[in-house]
Specification:
By secondary structure, the protein is an alpha/beta fold. It has two domains: about 15-185 and about 290-375, Rossmann fold, CATH 3.40.50.1820; about 190-285, Rna Polymerase Sigma Factor, Chain: A (Orthogonal Bundle), CATH 1.10.1740. Helices cover about 35% and strands about 15% of the residues. The protein contains ten helices and ten strands. The protein has helices at about 130-145, 160-170, 190-200, 220-235, 235-240, 260-275, 280-290, 300-305, 325-340, 360-375; strands at about 15-20, 25, 30, 35-40, 50-55, 95-100, 150-155, 175-180, 310-320, 345-350. The protein starts with 15 loop residues before the first strand and ends with a helix.
Length: about 375
């Protein structure tokens, strides 16, 4: 818990909620009869409503991107290193909006909320959602907030994919798109990681076909899924530097309990994750990742998909990110260049792996600072 709120923090914040009557047509062919989006805002919308910046969250994140909900919080929001006074997404200049995606478990309509048509929790009956579905719902939130054009849409990982989809689907609704540690679609290896994680969840004895609410949750399966995911978010260098082969008790015990520090770390990460996240949401988020492929509607031609965009782009990758390596960001950049779009690209040297987009890496922050100063010039 912080002794005091740092001067460069957005301070104490509250989650807000906006309910929409619907229906919202989804890519899977189903409709949501109505839905709620939980979101947070930081900063002040200017009179021209031109300084709004949309933050799209990654797989296991939510609407709490910056600041603190209370003085009892152990840590701030997930992108606090980038959002706040004097930071790259400067809340003295920008009005920052971050929603919890549909299917999320932190206040937006999802498996742990009631279906208004039945009064029962959706649970496993919640429809499969896609990145395009999320963008549609976010567009409705923008309309409700009176924001006709975002100064920028930004996100890392799955958030970067949403920013990409925004630029394609609503070209006139954003001036800039920041695609950070993202990819134009998942590789077979990444889909495989997601499938192993999902199988860990659905194989849990407590999963009960996804209808576990009010009963023991499938914590073991979700813990294993998170442990697997966490390994892919870190680089080998980061894990070696942090843990090496250090033993938990300084000696071998010759058993299958925790022997190494890295094992203890992964179990802690997995167990703590089960206390704040929902297993059905994890299934939905990973499947949305699998399905993302904006070029599919254009014969597999990514440049053709980007041809309809009107935004300027910043594409950022990290040297040790093997989940979405720099080659995938260069693929995006080449397609943008081929489509004749304005794009700035940077590979940041960082040892943290995929998680580097969440970290205060100096070169990374400098790149964001430089680019957001260009955004502000047009606000």
């Amino acid at each position: 818990m912080p002794d005091s709120i740092p001067a460069d923090s957005v301070g104490l914040v509250e989650t807000q909620y906006r309910t929409f009557d619907g229906p919202l047509a989804l890519d899977c062919g189903r409709e949501l009869p109505g839905f709620t989006l939980a979101y947070e805002t930081y900063g002040t919308l200017n009179d021209a409503r031109s300084n709004a910046l949309l933050i799209c969250h990654a797989l296991s994140s939510d609407q709490h991107a910056a600041g603190y909900h209370s003085m009892d919080d152990a840590k701030p929001g997930w992108w606090d290193s980038c959002i706040g006074p004097g930071k790259p997404f400067d809340t003295d200049e920008f009005f920052v909006v971050c929603p919890n995606n549909l299917g999320g478990c932190k206040g937006s309509t999802g498996p742990n909320t009631a279906n208004p048509e039945t009064g029962e929790l959706y649970a496993s009956d919640f429809p499969i959602v896609t990145v395009r579905d999320w963008v549609r719902s976010q567009k409705l939130l923008a309309d409700a907030l009176g924001i006709t054009r975002w100064a920028a849409v930004a996100g890392g990982s799955l958030g970067g994919m949403q920013a990409m989809q925004w630029a394609i689907d609503y070209p006139d609704r954003l001036a800039h798109a920041l695609l950070i540690a993202a990819a134009p679609k998942l590789s077979a290896q990444n889909i495989a990681f997601n499938e192993v994680a999902r199988q860990a969840i659905v194989s849990d004895a407590d999963f009960n076909g996804g209808r576990y609410y009010g009963q023991p949750a499938p914590k073991k399966g979700l813990m294993l899924a998170r442990m697997l995911g966490h390994i892919t978010y870190l680089s080998d260098d980061a894990m070696r530097d942090k843990f090496g082969r250090e033993l938990k008790e300084g000696k071998l015990n010759f058993n299958f309990d925790i022997e190494f520090q890295v094992e203890s770390y992964l179990r802690y990460q997995g167990e703590s994750f089960t206390n704040r996240f929902d297993a059905n949401t994890y299934l939905l988020m990973t499947r949305a990742l699998d399905y993302f492929d904006p070029a599919a509607d254009f014969g597999g031609d990514l440049a053709a998909a980007f041809a309809r965009t009107a935004a300027r782009f910043l594409v950022v990758s990290f040297t040790t990110d093997w989940r979405f390596p720099p080659a995938r960001s260069r693929e995006i950049t080449r397609a943008l260049v081929q489509a004749g779009k304005q794009v700035s690209y940077c590979t940041v040297k960082a040892h943290q792996g995929h998680d580097a987009f969440l970290m205060p890496v100096p070169q990374y922050l400098a790149v964001l600072d430089a680019y957001t100063s260009q955004i502000l010039a047009g606000v």
